[in-house]
């Protein structure tokens, strides 16, 4: 029992667990973003495609393409750990705009979704993809050559 309590109270990641946790976190978070927000933007699973809000007044075609890419394409990059930090930026642009512009004056239960997605992708931005990623594989091959 004492060992269990010590492990629970230990503040640093357990040996080797950080990279596995980041892999699982990246995959689960990005699959959920694609499933919950991306597919409905292209009309999969719904009667018709969702109309993408345009709170910044950007050209409609660009706004729609950017939101679709942020919810469908860049999460795939993050799942594989390819250009991970760069891929988080468009996602954060959409989620932070949703939080600070689109839903800022809404009830907390409405604006919590973009808030949580923003926090999660900020974690990925700051910590990177971890050891189990294409980024790491590319970096290792670059150093060896």
From TrEMBL:
Membrane-traversing stretches: 72-102, 114-134
InterPro entries linked to this entry: DoxX, DoxX-like_oxidoreductase
Domain of life: Bacteria
Pfam family, one: DoxX
Keyword terms, alphabetized: Cell membrane, Membrane, Transmembrane, Transmembrane helix
Cell compartments where the protein resides: Cell membrane
GO cellular component: plasma membrane
Bilayer topology annotation: Multi-pass membrane protein
Family: Belongs to the DoxX family.
Protein name: DoxX family protein
Classification of source organism: Bacteria, Pseudomonadati, Bacteroidota, Flavobacteriia, Flavobacteriales
């Amino acid at each position: 029992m004492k060992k269990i309590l010590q492990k629970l109270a230990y503040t640093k990641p357990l040996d080797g667990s950080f990279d596995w946790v980041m892999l699982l976190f990246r995959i689960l978070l990005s699959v959920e973003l694609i499933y919950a927000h991306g597919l409905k933007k292209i009309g999969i699973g719904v009667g018709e495609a969702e109309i993408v809000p345009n709170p910044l007044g950007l050209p409609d075609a660009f706004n729609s393409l950017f939101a679709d890419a942020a919810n469908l394409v860049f999460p795939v990059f993050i799942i594989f750990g390819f250009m991970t930090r760069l891929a988080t930026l468009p996602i954060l642009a959409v989620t932070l705009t949703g939080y600070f512009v689109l839903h800022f004056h809404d009830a907390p239960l409405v604006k919590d979704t973009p808030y949580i997605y923003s926090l999660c992708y900020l974690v990925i931005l700051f910590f990177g993809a971890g050891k189990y990623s294409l980024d790491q594989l590319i970096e290792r091959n670059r150093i060896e050559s």
